[in-house]
Amino acid sequence: AGEDRPIAEAYRQDHRLPNQNRIESDRVKENRGAFPDPDAGPVMPFKEDDQDNDEPQQKKEEDNLVLAPPQELPGEMGKAVVLPTNLTEAVKKMVDDGWLKNAFNQYASDMISVHRSLPDPRDEWCKEPDRYLTNLPKTSVIICFHNEAWSVLLRTVHSVFDRSPPELIHEVILVDDFSDMDHLKTQLEEYWANEPKVKIVRAPKRLGLIRARLLGYDYATGPVLTYLDSHCECTTGWLEPLLDRIARNSTTVVCPVIDVIDDTTLAYLYHDSTGVNVGGFDWNLQFNWHAIPNHEKKRHKNTAEPVWSPTMAGGLFSIDREFFKKLGTYDEGFDIWGGENLELSFKTWMCGGTLEIVPCSHVGHIFRKRSPYKWRSGINVLRRNSVRLAEVWLDEYSQYYYQRIGNDKGDFGDISDRRSLRNNLGCKSFRWYLDNIYPELFIPGEAVANGEMRNMGYGGKTCLDSAARKSDLHKPAGLYPCHRQGGNQFWLYSKAGEIRRDEACLDYSGQEVILYPCHGSKGNQYWDYDSVKKLIRHGSSDKCLGIDAAKKKLIMERCDPNLDHQKWNMENYDR
Ligand code: LR7
Ligand code: MN
User: Fold this and answer.
1) What is the pLDDT of residues 424-460, one digit of tens each?
2) Molecular function (GO) terms listed (predicted)?
3) Pocket of ligand 1 contains residue 340 by CB under 6 Å
4) Of the ligands numbered here, which is closest to the C-alpha atom of 313?
């Protein structure tokens, strides 16, 4: 494994730029321009000429200044790479280009060895003797990419080879989803030419990540499949605990803990096993993270034990190949991005399997703030995928998703095959899944009103509006012209008097009206709606909710039934 190599040896191999790690054909040399030029950029801690030269040499004093000791290579041990602020214009441009193409700091990544060392985030429990079975099955590792950065893709693959027992890696399948970046063409093939375990599969047209994964599945021959995104880094001992769970029960689908590789500094950030989260979803059919619920905590003696998770994030998991096949792999009608993570999660649980997060296995992933590549134009891919998912797996609960998209399902294609798959497998109901696997989820059907919250002042065109994401919590709730499309204007009025969406509740503590995580204890989150007078009276302050048109914000005032801007229409009110 990478970390075990003696430092000097590691240094000899690692102190090159990523682009120097490959076999350099003439054509590849011409491509050099695509990578940072060490002379133009921030001072690199080495000089090219010094590599592989063990002869003692006469050194000038300045050489000693430039040569840094091995432990100070950029990004080693998962450390942050912080670019100097006084970059030349040329370098600044390269940094900006890297961000533009990838939505992460490619320039910083290119400075880091593709074999960089990482911290070992595992608990001691994970390393105890006989923790894992000795005869583990081999895995095919499948990595799909569409226009991934060179150093990032290579580091993903090397981290697999550098930190897995070789006998457990059956093959690494790189699925190129119709990329057009030059470095992903022959350069990639030449780089891996001497590594028989690496297979490169090219999609004949843009498939999207779900069908690209299915293409990889078609080529894979190992008994276990392990999927990774193309911007990951595996840590020491990541693989054995995953394969161990599958060896013990082939219907267990397992995910590593997904650590954060910072998009700006490429720092590897992790928590110990007390900080493990599990996956959930909201009625927008979006994946989210939660603390481990108490009923699950009670099943464990040690925090490093595998935990049941209602859903998976999607990109990083291992599954028995036959079980994946039995579950009908993925819906081939899913395009580009999204929905497949919930599909696989729901059917794993509903059709006889178990989904776990394995705290002994840590893999890093570069989390981006935007999607860098082209989606399809003219169609809402994510909605189409999610409607297919809802139609096949959600039973009567699909209505809660449809409410959120203004009941506009659009054209979602033919799903009859997926429905018969579910019938033939004899899977349990979605209600069973909610009751048993995800009892924490708030069910909108228990609400007294659902839909828009329209203010009657100033012509009655203004609605309560907020994305209510995690990042919107603790911030003022917004207003926007009513658009009748659900989404950020879809609210639930719960029996408990909350005005909420998912885990966000309207909350007033004397200052601004904000969104705050729902706490279920009334107080600042208790709103009493009088459906005749149309007033919304706040529990702890006894004031009424209104709007200030000039400031375009929510206000709290002494209740006055004569003021239109204190009157609200709650959609589908039914008490
Ligand atoms: O058209 C495409 N073709 C591809 O091959 C689009 C993407 N891809 C590749 C892409 O290069 C990448 O390797 O597919 C992989 C995933 O795409 P990302 O990295 O843009 O997705 P993401 O990390 O933003 O999104 C998460 O949700 C997706 C839903 O479809 C997938 O399941 C991703 O794998 C998933 N990533 C993770 O689970 C990592 C943890 C993120 C979280 C939470
Ligand atoms: Mn990703």
Assistant:
1) 999 999 999 999 999 989 898 888 999 999 999 999 9
2) carbohydrate binding; metal ion binding; polypeptide N-acetylgalactosaminyltransferase activity
3) yes
4) 1
Shortest-distance ligand to the CA of residue 229: 1
- pTM for this one? 0.81
The pLDDT of residue 70 = 53
The reply to whether 395 and 359 lie within a common domain is no
Amino acid at 522: K
Distance 338 CA to ligand 1 centre (A): 8
Q: Which residues contact 511 (CB under 8 A, 6 or more apart)?
A: none
- Structural domain harbouring 340: 124-366
509 part of a folded domain: yes
Other CB atoms closer than 10 Å to residue 338's CB: what's the count?
Answer: 23
Task: Judge whether 371 lies within some domain.
Answer: no
* CATH number of residue 242's parent domain: 3.90.550.10
What contacts 558, CB < 8 A, 6 or more positions away? 543, 544
What confidence tens digit (pLDDT) does each residue in 130-176 have? 999 999 999 999 999 999 999 999 999 999 999 999 999 999 999 99
List helix spans (H) across 337-483.
340-350, 381-393, 398-404, 416-425, 430-436
Residue where the block lists tokens 């070992």: 120
14 CA from centroid of ligand 2 (Å): 25
Both tokens of 504, joined, read: 């966000």
Looking at the domain assignment, is residue 382 inside a domain? Answer: no
